[in-house]
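--- STAGE predict ---
source: upstream dedup step, 1 unique chain passed
mode: sequence only
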Amino acid sequence: MLYVDVILPLPLDGTFTYSVPDTLAPKVKPGMRLVVPLGKSKTYTAIALTLPYAKTDEQTRANGKAITFKPIITVPDTKPVLLPHQLKLWLWMADYYLSPLGDIFKAALPSGLKEEDGYRPRTETYVTLGQPYRSEQALQVAFAMLKRSAKATALLKSYLALSHWQSLQGTTPRDPIAEITREELINESNATLFAIQSLLKRNILTTYQKEVGRLNDGNGKSTEPSTRLSEAQQDAYNNILMQFLSKDVVLLHGVTSSGKTEIYIHLIEKALAEHKQVLYLLPEIALTVQITERLKRVFGNRLGIYHSRYSDAERVEIWQKQLSGHPYDVILGARSAVFLPFQNLGLVIIDEEHETSFKQQEPSPRYHARSVAIMMARQFGAKTLLGTATPCMESFYNAQKGKYGYVKLTQRYKGLELPLIEVADIKDLYRRKMMQGPFSPVLLGAVKKALANGEQAILFQNRRGFAPMVECHDCGWVPKCPNCDVSLTLHKNMNQLVCHYCGFVYRVPDRCPNCGCEDMRSRGFGTEKIEDEVQRLLPEARIARMDLDTTRTKNAYERIIHNFASGKTNLLIGTQMVSKGLDFGKVSVVGILNADSMLNYPDFRAYEHAYMMMAQVSGRAGRRGHRGMVVLQTKHPELPVIREVVNNDYETFYQALLTERRDFHYPPFCHLIYVFLKHRNEHIVETASTEMGTRLRAYFANRVLGPDKPAVARVKTLSIRKIVLKLEIGIDMKRVRQCLRMVQQDMLKDRLYGALQIYYDVDPL
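--- STAGE serialize ---
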């Protein structure tokens, strides 16, 4: 009897072993999908991890009794859906991120590949001339039959013209016959489905089904060559190639609007000339809209797009295309694109490498696409380029220490100056009653002037909804989520209070349920409120809002960005989506409405993220023509981080932060692992976290901090506790992971903790 180890799409550690019937054994290979039973009645589509292998008698017995291995049911494919390097990457991710293999399976594969019959190829109905009528003489007979029906006659004539069957000479057409879909025939002839049916009944026309792809390859070829690099860009390009000779990873530190994308295009062209594939990662789906247009012009249908806003069927087709003999040479995508099958990867470009969006938070696996992409590139012997204007601390540290190559680009494209950043002290302005809603006089004046001159403006507020909370003016009652430890956010457009963690919805009360007061007031402001205030103060503005609420549909990003780029709208209000690499030529003013909301956050990375966000959103101004202007509103203009943003002084910011990180043992001077425990009963999770903290200290001593409550201690009715592990650089991480798994297994053996959830966040953000 032969056996095979498989991965199931379930949140379970390790693999499962099944027996392989002799008839199916030749079909089973690593990476193949297998339909297997589990439990009494369920079946799952699993992934084979091994070739069929034999077991010894000892391996098939436990405690003197024979082990029953269920047989696999069927092998639905003729070829593997996973390549060997993908399986190797999955195993590395499961080990490094302390994640069940099944969770990686669920995250990596499109849903259509997880079910035996989950994917259906797209088909279309085509029309062709019936076999008996494929001659000049037979067609004359057909027209004679239809002489009483003018519509049927016109339809047939229209079909013959479209398909070129009218060029018949005897039984041979002079021109190649074109395939015509039923929909195309209806549209071109203005006929009805009834008219087509009448020809089908007479067998003059027949129909057939044909599989068509969902992928839009456009017109196929590139339409224009890449732009010639400027002197500064050419120097950076040459330096990158020099660095690649000795380093596998290179950091390109280029100021905003320095033309990094054009350098990427030239590197891609070089990789393609060497017959290599390229992976181009972006942090936000919104960015793919602009970059796609730019890359399509150069690479045509050699470019494939992959992200979560594509339908499952489209993602399956891209996956299958990458497995075929004619894959896309360049893949542009968000973090999930790291899971695609590549056959000959030569270059990985990670644009805006500092972005937190590359880190998966929920659900498991909590991987960082940057780290996974670097590891995948290493498997192929490929090179990785990290590009950004504001490097993350770890990347810059690695570059300074010589682990990564480093290339700096300090000039904006065509010698443009960096925007002028003006700081507005809103605490003083509020005191002097000079604020108009959330806007300082200097910001409002700059926006008015820009719009009057036919230019555009961007307003950045990193909070969606109308207001973060609603409060009773008399008793101070605040509506809170019953499932989570958070206040409900007011969405005025929907007249609802919404929890941004679990989605709970509560109707806005007319009066306070606690004291009956009718004076319910909103506190703070989100993007919705900003939009209302702008409409009131600047009625001439053509406003667009880009946040999670306005970009839920598939084409929402494209519509908002296209309208702003074409000038249909001239004022864009948004959350962090507007800060990431978007390129608009007419934006002359950027307003950062409340910098303090980013700074005053209980996280050791708060200043790092705030600096990056402010510097990036500032870089959206003045990308063409004259110098742009940024108005940074804050209650604490004296903070060093504000001064460093104004001066674009990343090195000073980095050195100050590095000292702090070293003193308090944070990355890049140590590894961080967060251990989370969840349970519906707060007492149980409190007891469990205390016990687990004690067990971990037996192995890691004072490297263990906590347990403690996180900032939000209850989400979706589950109480949460958090333990922090600070592990010095050089510690045996393999041994660390073994200890963590051992402690977790011992904990879950206790019946009291049967429903306890324990999971890890490795290298958290």
